[in-house]
Each structure stands twice: as structure tokens, then as C-alpha cells.
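Could you help me review a protein record that somebody else here produced? Do not assume that whoever made the record got everything right. The record follows directly below this note.
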Amino acid sequence: LPHLALPAIEDRDIQVTLTNQHASLSQPEDWATMELELLEESIAKGYISSSKRALARQQQDDHRVVCAVGEPAIVHIDLYNPLQVPISLSRLILGCKHYGPDVKDSEKTEAADAYEPMPDCKPLDNNMFDFEQYELEKLKEITLEPLEKKTINLTVIPRHEGSVKITGLHYTLNDLVHTFRPFHKKGKRLNRTKEEMMSVIYAPDRSLDVLVTSPMPLLDLAFHNVPETILSGEVIQTVLEINNKGNKGMTALHLKSSHPSFICVGNPEDMDKDVYGLSSDEPEHIEMDNSLFDASVIPIPLPAKDAKGGANPYGVVEPGATTLVPLWIRGDRIGKHTFKLLFSYQSEEDNAIIAHRTLRSTVRIQVLPSLKINAFTRPSATAVNEYILGVEIENLQTVAQFNLTQLTATSPIWNILPLSIDVKSTEDVAAKTAIPPRQTTFAYYKICRAPIVDTSNPEAWTSHALGALLSSHSNTKNQDSAPSPVHLNLSKISFSESNIPFDTTPLKTFALNSRMHWRQTNLESQFPNISQERYHSLFTLYNSGDIDLALYWDIPQMKRHGHHYIIGVNLGVQQNPFQGTHADLMNKNSNRTMFEATAKERSTLINSLTRNKHLKDESPIKLMVSSPDKKTHDFENEGLLKVPVSIQLRNCSWNRTSKYTLELLPWSSDSKSKDNASKPSTFNIYPFHWTGSTVFSGILKPEEFVDIQALATLHLPGVYDINRWKLTVRTDDKDDAEVFVHQPNVSQLITAAAI
């Protein structure tokens, strides 16, 4: 009896999966996007050979389930009873059609609404029936209670290459009426053309057309020792078990993660190693690639040799074999997280039908608060281009005590030194690095210029790349160029006996992935008009003034370890990454734009590069006043006291030549002092005057400095504030050059004592 409406079946919810997959409809668009991104990355990195690129892209566009000969495929069907009385269904079996590998899609007949008779078959074991080209599972009977919804799983095992199309479902209702329910599953609604928009047209759906290939590897996964909760910053080691349940060797295994800053995959020999207990005498400088990268795609190491003794660059897992690799998880951000893990792998032997296979998996974990860290910087009062770093650390736990073990800084030009902690005193270190529950500690450090600095100048590469983005003659050339490697200074302040290394697994991976996550988020906010696909050809991972801090800790009584990152500190002169001019961009590209929309997009992009509201330029010149704190003088016999004052000006920009004018102001010209004269003070500030020249002008090239000597004349014993000056800086090599005016905001006191 055709057209029987019992039970109700929603065609769009029917799924076909392999035995190593889970039927799930949660966020299918996210998974499809991840699959496409993983495919493009695999092609770009050469994981998929050039001869298989077209095949891989076609496979991705088809959205078909790929099944090897002899592999079970499971069809998931939701049945719903809309009646107020129960119904029973018996002898449930799929309706299928087999097509040979040479049959084109246009030659395949669509499922008809007419009744389709049950073909002849032979019974096998475990409720399976042989239909020559494939085997099907038959369910004896199920009962649907009133308004009940139930999912049934029916197995199909292909026996020949080609394709098996799921056409419908055979069943008997209440042991009386036998019927066939055809499946008509539609693809996405099309709206690319006017005709498609005006009418209801759907793309063809091939999710029920199972592609059957020659024997292939089949990946099966298991995660061991994954806890439900971890602390923020805590690092734990889990185990990833990789099984090959197929009939061919598995190779080129790669993972794409939705949370790349949370995970790191290591080599099998790194299993159970003490990451934080290592002591290493690694060099103070390391060279690294400064290009942006896709941190979400991770190659997974496999055994290097196959069963025949041959070497494979990606490793091989033989059929039926199992391998274990360490998987570290770090609580990068607080909250409940579901890691989407997409695995891609290939057959050791070439397959003419498919290029690779994928497997979806998820891991759930909750990250709890541990330490709350606030950091701030301010210029140092003792040297130009030095800074004081203050770190406030609060223990948010109610029971556990945290012990700080090490602070590591990585930067192209900066080093870090302790100020408030005497690392040579065991008592002082213990008192200032142990944080009891619900307590807060403060520490101060000095950031100064390293003796050896990086000279790759990533800012110049970025500026040139941004200019080439809109220039017609060099755009293609710049797309292929890569930034020079960056030399990072490693400075460590150890609070324990161990020396935790940076350049090791998984610590280096976590550091780079966290920086990449911060860098990409930062670029998205600063340059919303530039697509993410262009980032790697326009920006670098590190800029010269960047400094990243890693604060390591442990909880001895709980045997827990971890570290927190302080990323995004840039102590260089803040400048727009694009250092060209608006006129240069307009002159470089004289081609006329064909479409008005394209012209508007280009104009918007030019304005975002030349007048970026997210990046306000800073003055390139920094100033420091030096003078003795105290002077003794015989005012009665020797008269006036002349105190030498040294003023150092340094151009800290990497490219901008600046003109400066320094005016030494007399006491009477400081309106701020007059305004504050009526306010009560803890001590009296005496007036003074400058002797000699009080106006200095000049030009400073990048990284150039000048020392200016002046004399402050003091009349009487007392306390004097000699920070009375005004610095005007102008850069003429940029559109709308801003004039920067510096004035002191702190006091520079000199105490004059009478003999």
C-alpha cells in the first residue's frame, strides 16, 4: 500500500554515518566550514598531492559519505507516531539501489513515489540479509507509543565498488499492511541567480548516495585521562589512541581544532615527560619564523615505517594496528568548552575515487578560575626607553596555595629584570611568590633594551605589504614574499631550582598558538576591511616592540602545574602599520575601476590604511631629565648654586625622522604651578631659573639620540622642582603630520642644603 503516512518521517533528518562516527545534527555548518578550511590548508601545505587536488575539491563539494567495500554504513531514521494510540512496525529494511563505478549521476534514477517491491535476498547471521551487491539489516519489530519519536539505525554493507543509493524504507504496519516509504531529501535552497530567487529551487542532495571505494583505512579514536574540569592556565597530559580498523595502511593524519590555543599534540616519545620539571641551559636567543600561520591544523606523528620496512614521511598505521600519542590540554580561557576536532587521513596506497577521509570528534571540558592577573607598565625615571612592569596576582581559589616558579619574557628587543624580588634571597623569594587562598601579591620588574636586538624590522615589511595591497605593479610579487625570521631574546627570572625551557613541546606550541590567537583577534579589530585570508601576506607574528610574558606556577599539595600568558604588551612607539601616504596609494594605481561598488571598497580600504582610527600615532621622541638628588652649597660665601642638568632625547621610531624644539621654561611661565600654588603641599617648592641657552632645536633620525646639558640656578637652600620644559616634535614625512607637544607630568626634585 503506497503513500502510507504512518509513521511520520522527516526526510531532511535522515543521516548516513560510518561505524566510527556519531550521528549528530549539532552545528553542521561549522563542521562543513572546518572541512573546507582543512582541505585548503592541506592542499596549500602539500599534504594532499597536486594530482589529487581536483579530486579532493570535488569530494568536498559532493558532501557524500565515502565507504570502502566491506565497511558497514549506518542509516539513522527518525520515526514519529502522531496518533493517540500505539502502533507497531515490523520487518523494517532499507530500500537500496546499487550503481557501478562507471554510471554517471545523470543516469541514476530518482526514487519514485510508487510502490517498490522487496527484491529477493538470502538470510545471514545477526539479522543481515544478502542482496548480492550489498547486505542489509532487518529489524524484526518496534513499537511506537502515542506521540513517541524514536530513532532506528539500519546497517548497509556494500560488497562492490560504485555507489549504493538509499531510496526508502520497507516495513509492515501493525503486521497487516506492508508499504514502502520513499525518501526525497533536498539540498540547500538556491538563490544565486534571479531565476533561483524568484522560484523555489533546491540543490541536489547526495548524502543518501553512498560512494563505495576499494579497501581504505578507517580511523577510530579514543581519548584517555581527559578530566571534566581543569584550572585556568593548568596543563594536563591526556592520551590520544589511534586505531586503524580499515584494510589499508593509514598515513598523513592531520587534526583541525576549533580551539587551537587549548591543545598540543606531541611525539610518542614525549609521553609522561615532566614538562615543568625540566632544567635546560637553552640559549638566550632563538630564531623563529615570523609569518602568521594556521594554528588550528596540526600534523599528528605516526610510526615512521610501515610493515614492509619502507619509510613514509608522514608515518603509517598498519591495518588493525594502534598507536598512542600524547595530547596536552591547557585551560586557556575560563568557561565550558566543546572542542570540535576534525581529523583528515589518507590511504597508504593511491585510490582513484577519493583523496582523503575525515572523522569528526568532540571533547568537552570546563575551565575554572585560578589566578587573576593584572599588569601595567610605565616609563622608567632612570633611563630613556626603559619601563617598569607591575604585576598584580590574586589567588581566586579558596583552598589551594599557588607558588610562582618562573617568569619568562620573549621579545625581539627587550629583556626583563627583577626589581621588588631579591632572587638571591630564599626567604624573600618564598615570601613574595607564595600566594595563599584568596590573597593578592604584587611584584615589580624592569624592562630594558637587550644587548642584542632583532634587526629584521618586521614593521617595514608590513608597511610595504600594505602599500602593495593596493598597488597594481607589485601586488603579486608581495603575495609570494615572506617576512624575515625574527630573533627573540629569552630572559628568565627563576623563583625555584628548575629552569623551565621555552623551546620545547608543549610549552613552545602553547606560547605560539596563544600569540597567534591574540594577534588574529587584534588584527580583526584594527583592520575590519581586510579579509583574514590576506593576513599572512600583510602582517607578521611579532613586531619589534612586542614582549610576551609567561608566568609559571604550581600547586604542590595537588600536584598541579600551569602557566598564564600576558600577551599584547608593545613598548615600541605606536604607529600606524602603514607608513606610506594617501597620495602614494592614489598615484601608484592609475587604473580605472570598472564597477562603482569596487571603487567604494577600495576607497574604504585606503582610508582604513591611512587614517586608521584604532591606531593613533605617538610621538617618536622620548625624553628623560637627569640631575643629582641633593647638593650641598655655601650660599653665604659662594652665592648662587648652579646645578648641571642632563636632558636626553631619543628617537625611538624605526623609520620616522623627527624635528624637535626643546624649551626650558622659567618658573613664572608654568601656569600649572601657578594654579597649584594655592593648594596645600607637604613641602615648599622654591623658584629657580635657567642659566645659558634655553631653546634647543634639531633633527633626530631613527634610533638616534642627543644629550643636552643645561644649568639650573638655585638661590637659597630648599627643595626645587626642575622639571620645567616643553618639547615640540614634528614629523614631516607623513600626511596630516601631527605636532606632538610634551610637558612634564611628574616632579624632578633637587634638595639644596646649606653648609
Notes: Residues 405 and 496 are 5 Å apart (CA to CA). The two ends are 120 Å apart (CA to CA).
